[in-house]
Amino acid sequence: MYKKKLAEDIRCPLEYGLGIFGGKWNSRIICVLAGMGTLRYSEIRTEMGNITDAVLAAALKELIANGIVTRKSYDEIPPRVEYSLSEKGRTVVPILQNICEWSGAFYRQASETPLAYCQKCDHKQLGA
Fold first, then answer.
1. What is the distance of C-alpha 73 from the center of its chain?
2. Mind listing the pLDDT tens digit for each residue in 15-68?
3. Looking at the predicted structure, is the pLDDT value of residue 83 above 50?
4. Helices (H), the chain
5. Distance of CA 94 to the CA centre of its chain
6. Distances in Å between the alpha carbon of 128 and those of 35, 67, 96, 101?
7. Per the CB 3.0–4.6 Å rule, which of 13, 31, 39, 92 could disulfide with 120?
8. Local structure of 27: helix, strand or coil
9. Which residues, 6 or more positions from 72, have their beta carbon under 8 angstroms from its beta carbon?
10. CA-to-CA distance for 81 and 27, rounded, in angstroms?
């Protein structure tokens, strides 16, 4: 198992937040769960599109460990597991919506190529 050579050195709350919900996949998983509610693993995988199983499993595990996503397993045959945003996870959604708005506004200024809004980040869909 991989062990970090240096201890984590967080000097700013922004670093902490970006470590939890930043990155390509964590924010997208949060948006998918915010827009669609409770989903099974295969449903998340379908919504995410181009993510591998290993990356999705690792991202979900990290989001669960950080209290952003909850995992509920049912004692059934076949086994059923569902994922949803925790209360803490739901508080991240407005932050991601603001980042999406900011990015959309400034991307238009920096590029001639239009930036399509992701359906998962649709502000109306997420309740903004």
1. 20
2. 888 888 888 899 999 999 999 999 999 999 999 888 999 999 999 999 999 999
3. yes
4. 13-21, 24-36, 41-48, 53-65, 87-90, 93-110
5. 12
6. 11, 23, 11, 11
7. 31
8. helix
9. 81, 82, 83, 84
10. 21
